[in-house]
TrEMBL record:
GO cellular component, one term: membrane
A GO molecular-function annotation: ABC-type phosphonate transporter activity
Organism, as annotated: Planococcus versutus
Keywords per UniProt: ATP-binding, Cell membrane, Membrane, Nucleotide-binding, Phosphonate transport, Translocase, Transport
Name listed for the protein in its UniProt record: Phosphonate ABC transporter ATP-binding protein
CDD domains, A to Z: ABC_PhnC_transporter
Amino acid sequence: MIQVKNLSVHYPDTKVKALTNISLSLEKGDFVCVLGKSGAGKSTFIRCLNGLQKPTSGEIYFDGNDIAAHSEEKLRKVRREAGMIFQHFSLVPRLSVMQNVLTGMFGYRSSFKNLIGWFTTEEIVFAKKVIADVGLSEMTYRKVEQLSGGQKQRVGIARALAQQPKVLLGDEPVASLDPGTSNHIFTLLTEMHERLDLLTIINVHDIELAKRYASRILALKDGKLIFDGPPGNFTDEMYQETYTAQPHPSYFDAGI
Ligand SMILES: Nc1ncnc2c1ncn2[C@@H]1O[C@H](COP(=O)(O)OP(=O)(O)OP(=O)(O)O)[C@@H](O)[C@H]1O
């Protein structure tokens, strides 16, 4: 579904080599957790997959089409098919759960309809369904600012599902949540992943969550892919290798 070929990202401002020569294939049904210490390149990798970050070199094919070669209009279609959930939720706190979830449908609608905020009965019924799927029916019309962190992340997931995505991307979606709530969110993600037959790719710091829920682990270190395999093969040595504290070589390049 997604093929990554020799992907490199160098940020010109900081001269940081965030990703170097990554090649892999990600298939429908994979539940992927991306591990790596802070600055390893996890966010940059996720952002490349939905076209938010342009590669410095290399290619990313989404359903056989090169994302980098896409026009802005085609990129919008890729972003529509790749639902994204974020560490800090990226919701509009003063709007209701329903209003936030409806924004997930914006990619399918005209700018005019989005501007005036008019939704069809079918769209509202579908939004209610995804809100029920994440267990928040009773809070459908409550303002998001009145919800707990775990509930907010459920809204984030419902909004991503409202996009009817083929791919679900998560940039540290449980980093702000306690361990019990993180487990509930991962259980929900696994259920949705299976029910909707998705490709799911989640950045996570917690190795235990990755080992419990992932079907495949990727480990990044200093922008390089140092592990790609099932959780059972991610040994303690590999863990040490992933998280050993060495200064990022590109800090030296940048003269830091
Ligand atoms: N917009 C940017 N401009 C310049 N450098 C950047 C930018 N975004 C990230 N970087 C640098 O690229 C490297 C990789 O960053 P990235 O955010 O992808 O890592 P990460 O593994 O997601 O880290 P964290 O776990 O802390 O979120 C870091 O050294 C970071 O400082």
